[in-house]
Every structure is written in C-alpha cells, then in structure tokens.
Write a structure and sequence with these properties.
It is globular and about 75 Å long. It is about 45% helix and about 15% strand. It contains 14 helices and 11 strands. This is O-methyltransferase-like protein 3. Pfam families: Methyltransf_2.
C-alpha cells in the first residue's frame, strides 16, 4: 500500500500483490485500521496514514521487526523462565531468558553474529536510535574537562582517548570534527570482527583488537571511554571491565561512561521497558544513579561527577569515574 502511486487500494489488490486470501487481508486490515495504521475509504478499500508512512523509515521498520521477532519472543517466555529458574534477575549472558526462548547457548550478540539477516536488522535499528539523540559531545564540556588539561601536560606519549567497544569509530570521528588537534592521539578498541570494516579516512585513529574483560593494552591514556556499553552486561562483568581499566590508568586518567541513568521514581515507560529488554535479551540492566554508584564502588573506584543531557527526555548522562583519593 505504501509506495504505490494509487491514493487507495482494495483488499482484492492487496491480496493479489501479497499472494494472500482476500478474506484474510480484510480481517488483518480491520485491525490495522482500528490501530491507525491505515484508514478505510469505503468497504474493503484502504488508504495509508501518517503512522503507516513512518514505517517506511528503515530504522523504524527495523525496530518493529527486531522487537517482534526477537524481543517479544523472549519476553513471551519470561513467566515460564522465572518459574523454572527462580524469581531473581538473570546475571548470566549465556544462560538467561534469551537462551531459554531461542534454545541456544550463545550470547545475544553471538547469536546475532550467526544470523546475518537478524544482525543487519538490529544494526539498522541501533543506527536509527543513535541518530535521534543529541550527541554527547554537543553538551558535555570536553574541552574544559579533558582537552585543556591534556594539552597543558603536553605529554607526547599520552593518548587522549581510548574508545572501548567503539565499533566503527563514530564517536572518535565526531570528536575529531570538533577537536582536530586530537588527531593521532585517539584509539579505537573492539573485538576483531567489529574492527574489520573500520575505515579510517585519514583520521589517524589507532586500532586495537581487544576484549574489554581482559587487561587494557593502552596504558596511561587521559580518558577511557564507553558509549552505551555497560548496560549490555550484568554487574559482575562491568566490575571486571572497570577493574581491568583501572589497572591501565595513570595519574591523570579517568573513565567516561556515556550511559542512560534511570530516575529513582516515576520512570518514563520507554526506559522502564528498556530495562526489561536488557534483562530479557542480555541478562543485563539499565541502572539508576544509586545503582551506578554501587557498581563503581564495587570496582574500587569513585564517581567524580555526572553530567546530564539537556534533553531530559533522554535520561542520558556522562559519568566521570576516577580512583579514590588514596589511590591517586
């Protein structure tokens, strides 16, 4: 129906174009009209709406497909999963609700990697999700809090920023657009498969194939940074990542986490549901301020400051983490 040059289309035409029974089309379209995805123009004749037009956006389409094919399937098994495993939050990325629903011993991301079509859908969904947000470098005072003191030290051996789990390097490239003086002092880290398609385009970004749960190879960088990474993992794995990073930190180093921080009360529906999705698919969680503090403290570190996005609808923050004063 969408993309057709016709203003409206009949149930008979829809049935013919989709190799479907006309009665089935009528019954399905009755629901879609009721929900606002189409409108009637007479009996058995339909026109698109703004809602159905929105579904032609690749990111929105991918969101619907992934949510239905993966997340909804997993969450439909949650009552059965908890009955069998006990009523407590899952903490094992390879033995949680996702594995129970799909009958696999692979983690969520390993499973996607084994199914390219699902992986492509998920990646399209995530790319669209990022594009809807104001980038953290547009509201976090990077120059005042990082770049200026780094330049004042003028240490030619000290890397400026290590992007851990940085994928295709989107954040580093954005940083170079705003601060070209950082060229040659940035490091992109991720698993080998994630780095194989990375294109530098003359940005002079160093790359390291690295597992964030193993010793950090870059020592003494000014900043160790992650973007929406820790909410993909349960607490104990995050603690291990923070400890490994701590071992690589120098006197002037800090960790910057770009994450979501749930409110303690009256959590918006989208973010409350996102936490359940983290639990279902990843045995992980979205965290509140108190949960972030507890997590960081358990790793032997301390939160120095939290910056919040000016768009309060996002609940997006940058959390600065450092060593406790006695360890500095």
């Amino acid at each position: 129906m969408i993309g057709s040059e016709k203003v409206s289309i009949s149930a008979q035409e829809l049935a013919a174009s989709s190799n479907s029974e006309e009665l089935l089309v009528v019954r399905v379209m009755r629901v879609l009209v009721a929900e606002g995805y189409a409108a009637n123009e007479g009996a058995r004749r339909y026109t698109p709406t703004a809602l159905s037009a929105a579904l032609t956006d690749p990111a929105i389409e991918a969101c619907v497909v992934h949510s239905f094919d993966v997340t909804a399937r997993v969450q439909s098994f949650l009552p059965e999963y908890f009955q069998q495993h006990g009523y407590h939050s899952p903490v094992h990325p390879k033995n949680g609700p996702f594995q129970y629903a799909f009958g696999t011993d692979l983690s969520f991301f390993e499973f996607l990697h084994s199914q390219p079509k699902r992986a492509q859908t998920f990646n399209t969904y995530m790319a669209g999700n990022r594009s809807d947000r104001q980038h953290w470098l547009d509201w976090f005072p990077f120059h005042e809090n990082v770049l200026r003191t780094w330049e004042e030290r003028n240490d030619s051996k000290e890397m400026l920023l290590v992007d851990m789990g940085g994928g295709k390097g989107h954040d580093l490239k954005r940083l170079l657009e705003k601060y070209p003086e950082a060229k040659g002092r940035l490091v992109l880290e991720d698993l080998p498969g994630a780095l194989q398609d990375f294109e530098d385009h003359g940005c002079s970004i160093a790359t390291y194939a690295h597992d964030i749960f193993t010793p950090q190879p870059v020592k003494g960088a000014a900043v160790y940074y992650t973007h929406f990474l820790l909410h993909d993992f349960p607490d104990q794995m995050c603690i291990e990542m923070l400890r490994q990073t701590d071992q690589a930190m120098g006197t002037h180093s800090c960790i910057l986490l770009n994450e979501i921080m749930l409110p303690e009360t009256d959590c918006p529906p989208f973010f409350a549901a996102a936490d359940i999705t983290m639990m279902s698919n990843l045995s992980a969680l979205a965290r509140s301020k108190d949960q972030w503090k507890t997590l960081v403290h358990a790793a032997g570190l301390v939160i120095r400051k939290i910056w919040m996005s000016p768009d309060l609808r996002d609940w997006e923050v940058v959390i600065e983490i450092g060593r406790r004063s006695s360890d500095s």
